[in-house]
Each structure stands twice: as structure tokens, then as C-alpha cells.
Glycosyl transferase (Rhodosalinus sediminis), 414 residues
Amino acid sequence: MADFHQNGQVATLHDLRSVSPETLTHAVATFVRDRPVTLILPSLYSELEGEALPRILDEIAQVPYLRRVVIGLDQADAAQYAEAVRFFERLPQEHVVIWNDSPRQRALGDRLKAHGLYPSEPGKGKNVWTCMGYMLARRDTWVAAIHDCDILTYSRHMLTRLIYPVVNPNFSYQVSKGFYPRLGDGKMNGRVTRLLVSPLLVALRVVVGDRDFVDFLRSFRYPLSGEVALRTATLPDLRIPSDWGLEIGVLSEAWRNLAPKSICQVEISDAYDHKHQALSPEDAATGLNRMSTDICKAIFRKLAADGTVFTQNTFRTLKAVYYRTALDMLESYYNDAAMNGLTMDRHKEEQSVELFAENIMRAGQAFLDNPFETPFIPTWSRVNAADPELLGDMVAAVEADLAEARVTSCRSQS
């Protein structure tokens, strides 16, 4: 997207194809001498067997400037954890694999439960939160970068572009958010951003009026991207949602804690594709069906916290305005796809819009039924206040798990 427009509350840093990736890499390698970078990879064990993660590791292995790579491993037993430790040994950088389901990690969870601070449900949010806690405990990182482990079109230069704004000492950005076009298999992807978030934000401006937070979200070209870099000074007080509202929740926290001038979005790729979630219209607890509901709730909760009053009539009107807006946008997406030689199934696209419209009502009703719901994981500042020894014990638990895994690996190879 080689333009140079600045038309939102946050700065947009483009890829104008005027600087080589190698030049940017050299610059970042210079910056990080005094501003070390840790990369966080939240991973399921199943992703070790997929197509994307091996390629991602091959690319990361060529990154010269990383201080450490922290991998959070979910849904793995002891044997699978030992296999994961071997799998990630291809990384030449210092790295650590956190087994989130280990007995030691569960014991730490029991300590948090005693304080009423344990994350409400497992998932990517809890995984990222745990990795952040480990990183904070090590106290040797200036910037934390996060990205998903299912990116089929991954390049190490995506990471370089993502972190450049927050490691450059001449820039004042605290948060950098990646954006890109979602393309794959000759299709225009990114349904939740295109068909839910974008038209919903337009509809909210119509129904509830001008809201700074809505304008803030509309500034982002891809608000649901999983690629974000943050200076670690922002992390102790960051409230991470435990549901599918993670990306919106992180932006909400950036909005709450920082001035918009401290936040930027940066173009990191012109061809991005990753694993696609099923629409799952028959099951509200899975796929894009659940994701869309959680995202709507995250937006409604934030607006309510800023003083917006919601009623059932508000949500009925919002659904109607959203539906008409989404269909109008769908026409634009269809034309854009056709001009670029991409295919688009209009029937499936409209099915998605219909489901998302229903989920606006479902999310609205869930909010009205429980307006005081707090799906956020407690901040690490609060955890540290309740249990000052926990972070140190987490590092010890991770090291003990790793030592056992390596012994198991040696025995299996002998």
C-alpha cells in the first residue's frame, strides 16, 4: 500500500519501497545495542506440525539483533513439551520454551487463584500474558514484539519493520502496530476486519455520535493484526483480555494509558496470509462466530467505560445501521477484488455479514445482562503487589521444566 497519507489519530509509517530491508536491519541492529528486543511467540503444540512455524523459525534464525525469543507453549503434555524444546533448538538466539500446562506452572496458578488473580480461561491472551511476566522477571528487555505462529507468508523483515519505530531513539513511539493486506489463494481475506470491525465503527459513529475512541480505532488499517511491538515500560500496567478481544483490548489499553502520538501503525508486508478460522454459524462458542461476539463486547465495554449509555434499542439500531453499512462496503470490496484479479464469494460474504449482525445483538445483550463483567487478566503490577515472589518463582519453574525436558530428550536419543 504505497501511499503516504496521514489521516487518523495515530501516525502511519508506510513502506515506500525506497529503503532496502538490509538497510533497515542494519539500523535496528545498531539501535538495539542499548534497547534490547525480546520476541514473544504464543504457540499451540499443533502449530509445530504445521506448515507455517518451521518457516517462521528459519527466518527468525537469520535475525541478528534479538536479545531473546520467548515461546509460550499451550496444549502440550510432557512428551510434547520435550519435543517442542528440541524443535526450537534450531534458533541460534537465546530462547526459552514456557510449558504453560506444566505442574510447576499450574502450582503458580494455584497461588494466583488464592489471591483471586488467576486468568479466567486459557488461550492466546493468557499465553501472551505469561510470556510477558517471564520477560519482565528477566529485566533485560527494552522492547517486546509479539506475532502469531501461523503466518504462511512470514519474512524476518516483517519483524524489522514492526520494531523499528519503537527502538529508534529518535522516535517517541511506545507502541507499534503492524498492518498489511490479507491475501491468499487468489482471494481477499480478513473477513472480521473487513465485514465486522470496519462497518461497525462507522455504524457506531452514526448511532452513538462522535467518540474519540471510535475515531482512534478507525485510524488503524488493520486493528485485528496480531503483530505488535511495545516498549516494556508499558507492560506492567497492561490489562490483557482473556478472550478473542485481545487485539482490540491491547489497543484500548494503549488508548487509556498513552497519548495517540505515542502510538503508530507500520506497514510490514504487502502479501500476508495465515490460518483461517471457520465461520462456524452453527456453534457460537467457536470460530469467527465466537470471535466476532467477543470483539463486539470488547468495543462496547470500552465505550461504556468512557460514558456511552447502551440500551436494547441502541443495539437494535446499531444492528440495522451496521447491516446496511456492511453491505455497502461489501460492494466496494467486491469491486476492489475484481480489479486486482481476486475472487470473492458474495454469498459467503453476505452470510458472514448476517452472522455478524446477529452477534452484535448477542454481544449487546451479554453486555446488558452483565455490564460489570471483567474479562481482563490482572496486570503484572497487581500480581507483583499480591505475590512479590511469583515472578522469580516463574523463572525458576521454567528453568526446571527445561532441565527435565533436556534430560528426557537425552534419554530418548541414547
Q: What stands out?
A: The first strand starts at residue 11 and ends at 13. The two ends are 53 Å apart (CA to CA). The mean pLDDT is 93.
